[in-house]
Protein backbone atom coordinates (compact mmCIF):
# COMPACT_ATOMS: atom_id res chain seq x y z
CA UNK A 1 0.00 0.00 0.00
CA UNK A 2 1.88 3.02 -1.29
CA UNK A 3 1.14 6.47 0.13
CA UNK A 4 1.81 9.49 -2.10
CA UNK A 5 1.00 13.14 -1.60
CA UNK A 6 2.03 15.78 -4.15
CA UNK A 7 3.59 14.91 -7.53
CA UNK A 8 5.62 17.93 -8.55
CA UNK A 9 8.93 19.77 -8.26
CA UNK A 10 9.75 21.13 -4.81
CA UNK A 11 13.28 20.12 -3.76
CA UNK A 12 13.61 19.44 -0.04
CA UNK A 13 9.92 18.69 0.57
CA UNK A 14 9.66 15.03 1.59
CA UNK A 15 6.02 14.82 0.44
CA UNK A 16 6.54 16.24 -3.07
CA UNK A 17 7.73 13.53 -5.45
CA UNK A 18 9.25 14.53 -8.80
CA UNK A 19 7.02 13.47 -11.73
CA UNK A 20 9.93 11.62 -13.37
CA UNK A 21 10.46 9.52 -10.24
CA UNK A 22 6.74 8.81 -9.98
CA UNK A 23 6.65 7.71 -13.64
CA UNK A 24 9.68 5.48 -13.06
CA UNK A 25 8.00 3.87 -10.05
CA UNK A 26 4.81 3.19 -12.02
CA UNK A 27 6.87 1.74 -14.88
CA UNK A 28 8.53 -0.58 -12.34
CA UNK A 29 5.17 -1.77 -10.98
CA UNK A 30 4.00 -2.54 -14.52
CA UNK A 31 7.24 -4.27 -15.54
CA UNK A 32 7.26 -6.44 -12.40
CA UNK A 33 3.62 -7.45 -12.74
CA UNK A 34 2.18 -5.66 -9.71
CA UNK A 35 -1.60 -5.37 -9.76
CA UNK A 36 -2.89 -2.01 -8.49
CA UNK A 37 -6.22 -2.42 -6.71
CA UNK A 38 -9.39 -0.40 -6.37
CA UNK A 39 -10.65 0.06 -2.81
CA UNK A 40 -13.36 -2.47 -3.64
CA UNK A 41 -10.75 -5.03 -4.75
CA UNK A 42 -8.75 -4.33 -1.60
CA UNK A 43 -11.77 -4.86 0.67
CA UNK A 44 -12.81 -8.09 -1.05
CA UNK A 45 -9.26 -9.48 -0.88
CA UNK A 46 -8.72 -8.58 2.78
CA UNK A 47 -12.15 -10.06 3.63
CA UNK A 48 -11.17 -13.19 1.64
CA UNK A 49 -14.09 -12.72 -0.76
CA UNK A 50 -11.84 -12.76 -3.82
CA UNK A 51 -8.35 -14.21 -4.38
CA UNK A 52 -5.39 -11.86 -4.25
CA UNK A 53 -3.18 -11.37 -7.30
CA UNK A 54 0.43 -12.35 -6.74
CA UNK A 55 1.66 -8.77 -6.27
CA UNK A 56 -1.22 -6.55 -5.17
CA UNK A 57 -0.66 -2.87 -4.42
CA UNK A 58 -3.01 -0.04 -3.44
CA UNK A 59 -1.89 3.36 -4.77
CA UNK A 60 -3.09 6.05 -2.36
CA UNK A 61 -2.78 9.84 -2.52
CA UNK A 62 -3.46 12.05 0.50
CA UNK A 63 -4.82 15.60 0.84
CA UNK A 64 -6.05 16.54 -2.66
CA UNK A 65 -3.35 18.32 -4.66
CA UNK A 66 -4.25 19.58 -8.15
CA UNK A 67 -1.23 17.76 -9.57
CA UNK A 68 -2.85 14.44 -8.68
CA UNK A 69 -5.23 15.12 -11.59
CA UNK A 70 -2.86 17.11 -13.79
CA UNK A 71 0.30 15.00 -13.44
CA UNK A 72 -0.34 11.69 -11.65
CA UNK A 73 -3.54 10.69 -13.45
CA UNK A 74 -2.07 10.73 -17.00
CA UNK A 75 0.90 8.64 -15.83
CA UNK A 76 -1.42 6.10 -14.20
CA UNK A 77 -3.67 6.04 -17.26
CA UNK A 78 -0.72 4.96 -19.42
CA UNK A 79 -0.70 1.72 -17.44
CA UNK A 80 -4.45 1.47 -16.79
CA UNK A 81 -3.78 1.74 -13.04
CA UNK A 82 -6.56 2.69 -10.57
CA UNK A 83 -5.79 4.78 -7.49
CA UNK A 84 -7.39 6.06 -4.30
CA UNK A 85 -7.49 9.71 -3.24
CA UNK A 86 -7.96 10.50 0.45
CA UNK A 87 -9.39 14.00 0.13
CA UNK A 88 -9.72 16.87 2.62
CA UNK A 89 -12.69 18.79 1.13
CA UNK A 90 -11.81 21.94 3.09
CA UNK A 91 -8.85 22.43 0.74
CA UNK A 92 -10.97 22.28 -2.43
CA UNK A 93 -10.41 25.30 -4.66
CA UNK A 94 -7.42 26.65 -2.72
CA UNK A 95 -4.24 27.39 -4.71
CA UNK A 96 -2.48 24.14 -5.56
CA UNK A 97 -5.45 21.98 -4.62
CA UNK A 98 -8.11 20.20 -6.66
CA UNK A 99 -11.42 21.74 -7.71
CA UNK A 100 -14.63 19.72 -7.49
CA UNK A 101 -14.70 19.28 -11.30
CA UNK A 102 -11.20 17.77 -11.08
CA UNK A 103 -12.32 15.46 -8.27
CA UNK A 104 -15.22 14.36 -10.45
CA UNK A 105 -12.79 13.84 -13.34
CA UNK A 106 -10.64 11.57 -11.15
CA UNK A 107 -13.71 9.64 -10.03
CA UNK A 108 -14.84 9.22 -13.64
CA UNK A 109 -11.34 7.94 -14.50
CA UNK A 110 -11.72 5.12 -11.97
CA UNK A 111 -10.16 6.69 -8.87
CA UNK A 112 -11.77 5.98 -5.52
CA UNK A 113 -12.34 9.19 -3.54
CA UNK A 114 -12.40 8.78 0.24
CA UNK A 115 -12.34 11.13 3.26
CA UNK A 116 -9.20 12.46 4.95
CA UNK A 117 -11.02 14.87 7.35
CA UNK A 118 -12.32 18.30 6.37
CA UNK A 119 -9.33 20.53 7.25
CA UNK A 120 -6.46 18.08 7.96
CA UNK A 121 -6.14 18.80 11.71
CA UNK A 122 -4.21 16.86 14.32
CA UNK A 123 -7.25 14.78 15.34
CA UNK A 124 -5.98 13.76 18.82
CA UNK A 125 -5.84 17.46 19.77
CA UNK A 126 -9.58 17.87 19.14
CA UNK A 127 -12.60 17.03 21.31
CA UNK A 128 -14.59 13.96 20.31
CA UNK A 129 -17.33 16.27 18.94
CA UNK A 130 -14.81 18.21 16.81
CA UNK A 131 -13.29 14.97 15.54
CA UNK A 132 -16.71 13.63 14.61
CA UNK A 133 -17.49 16.80 12.65
CA UNK A 134 -14.16 16.64 10.77
CA UNK A 135 -14.64 12.97 9.88
CA UNK A 136 -18.35 12.83 9.09
CA UNK A 137 -18.52 16.14 7.21
CA UNK A 138 -15.65 15.14 4.91
CA UNK A 139 -17.47 11.91 4.12
CA UNK A 140 -20.79 13.71 3.59
CA UNK A 141 -19.29 16.24 1.15
CA UNK A 142 -17.62 13.53 -0.93
CA UNK A 143 -20.69 11.29 -1.04
CA UNK A 144 -22.89 14.27 -1.96
CA UNK A 145 -20.55 15.42 -4.74
CA UNK A 146 -19.98 11.99 -6.29
CA UNK A 147 -23.07 9.98 -5.37
CA UNK A 148 -20.91 7.09 -4.17
CA UNK A 149 -20.23 5.57 -0.76
CA UNK A 150 -17.06 6.86 0.95
CA UNK A 151 -16.63 4.62 4.01
CA UNK A 152 -12.82 4.27 4.14
CA UNK A 153 -10.72 6.86 5.99
CA UNK A 154 -7.07 7.92 6.19
CA UNK A 155 -5.80 9.76 9.28
CA UNK A 156 -4.32 13.25 8.77
CA UNK A 157 -0.64 13.08 9.77
CA UNK A 158 -1.30 9.40 10.53
CA UNK A 159 -2.57 10.50 13.98
CA UNK A 160 -5.54 9.12 15.90
CA UNK A 161 -6.63 8.20 19.43
CA UNK A 162 -9.32 6.10 21.10
CA UNK A 163 -11.96 8.74 20.33
CA UNK A 164 -11.10 8.56 16.62
CA UNK A 165 -11.45 4.77 16.59
CA UNK A 166 -14.76 5.03 18.48
CA UNK A 167 -16.16 7.49 15.91
CA UNK A 168 -15.11 5.34 12.94
CA UNK A 169 -16.87 2.32 14.47
CA UNK A 170 -20.02 4.28 15.35
CA UNK A 171 -20.18 5.84 11.88
CA UNK A 172 -19.76 2.42 10.21
CA UNK A 173 -16.51 3.09 8.41
CA UNK A 174 -15.11 -0.13 6.98
CA UNK A 175 -11.39 0.62 7.07
CA UNK A 176 -8.90 3.32 8.03
CA UNK A 177 -5.29 3.75 6.92
CA UNK A 178 -2.37 4.91 9.06
CA UNK A 179 1.14 5.90 8.04
CA UNK A 180 2.66 2.93 9.88
CA UNK A 181 5.23 1.42 7.52
CA UNK A 182 4.27 -1.75 5.69
CA UNK A 183 1.59 -3.52 3.72
CA UNK A 184 -1.98 -3.76 4.98
CA UNK A 185 -2.94 -7.32 5.97
CA UNK A 186 -6.01 -9.11 7.34
CA UNK A 187 -4.11 -9.53 10.63
CA UNK A 188 -4.19 -5.79 11.33
CA UNK A 189 -7.10 -3.95 12.93
CA UNK A 190 -9.36 -2.68 10.11
CA UNK A 191 -8.84 0.83 11.52
CA UNK A 192 -5.06 0.56 11.79
CA UNK A 193 -3.92 -0.55 8.34
CA UNK A 194 -0.32 0.06 7.29
CA UNK A 195 1.03 1.92 4.26
CA UNK A 196 4.46 2.65 2.80
CA UNK A 197 4.91 6.43 2.78
CA UNK A 198 6.79 7.40 -0.40
CA UNK A 199 9.36 10.10 0.45
CA UNK A 200 11.15 12.31 -2.06
CA UNK A 201 14.56 11.83 -0.40
CA UNK A 202 14.48 8.06 -0.97
CA UNK A 203 16.33 7.05 -4.11
CA UNK A 204 14.81 4.54 -6.51
CA UNK A 205 16.66 1.56 -5.03
CA UNK A 206 15.39 2.44 -1.54
CA UNK A 207 11.82 2.62 -2.83
CA UNK A 208 12.17 -0.81 -4.49
CA UNK A 209 13.65 -2.19 -1.26
CA UNK A 210 10.77 -0.86 0.85
CA UNK A 211 8.24 -2.27 -1.60
CA UNK A 212 9.81 -5.74 -1.73
CA UNK A 213 10.53 -5.86 2.03
CA UNK A 214 6.91 -5.09 2.87
CA UNK A 215 5.63 -7.63 0.37
CA UNK A 216 7.84 -10.31 1.88
CA UNK A 217 7.03 -9.38 5.45
CA UNK A 218 3.31 -9.68 4.82
Topology diagram in text:
Blueprint: E1 2-4, E2 6-7, E3 16-17, H1 19-31, E4 35-36, H2 39-46, E5 56-57, E6 59-63, H3 66-79, E7 84-87, H4 100-108, E8 112-115, H5 128-146, E9 152-154, H6 162-170, E10 175-177, E11 196-197, H7 204-217
Parallel strand pairs: 1-6, 1-11, 2-3, 4-5, 6-7, 7-8, 9-10
Compact overview of the structure:
The protein has 218 residues and is of the alpha/beta class. The chain has 7 helices and 11 strands.
User: How many helices in DSSP terms?
Assistant: 7
Structural class comes to: alpha/beta
Rg result:
16 Å
Number of strands: 11
Strand and helix order? EEEHEHEEHEHEHEHEEH
- How much β-strand is present in the residues? 5-15%
Silhouette: globular
Question: What strand line-up does the widest sheet have?
Answer: 8-7-6-1-11
What is the end-to-end distance?
Answer: 11 Å
Low-confidence stretches: none
Overall residue-averaged pLDDT value: 95
* Biggest sheet record: 5 strands, parallel
Instruction: Please estimate the helix content.
Output: 25-40%
Oligomer: single chain
Keywords: Signal
Main location: secreted
Organism: Paenibacillus germinis
Domain NodB homology: 55-218
Describe this entry's structure for a reader.
This is Polysaccharide deacetylase family protein. Keywords: Signal. There is one protein chain. Helix 1 runs parallel beside helix 3 (about 65-80). A five-stranded parallel sheet has the order 8-7-6-1-11. It has a two-stranded parallel ribbon with strand order 2-3. It has helices at about 20-30, 40-45, 65-80, 100-110, 130-145, 160-170, 205-215; strands at about 1-5, 5, 15, 35, 55, 60-65, 85, 110-115, 150-155, 175, 195. Helix 2 (about 40-45) links the parallel strand 4 and strand 5 (about 55). The protein is of the alpha/beta class.
Amino acid sequence: MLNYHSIGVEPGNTYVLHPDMFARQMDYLAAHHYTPLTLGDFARIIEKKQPSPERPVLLTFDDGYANNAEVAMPILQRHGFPATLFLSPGFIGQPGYLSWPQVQELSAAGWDIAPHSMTHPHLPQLSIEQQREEITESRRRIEHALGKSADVFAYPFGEYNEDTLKILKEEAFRYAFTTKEGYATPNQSPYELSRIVVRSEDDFATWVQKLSNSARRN
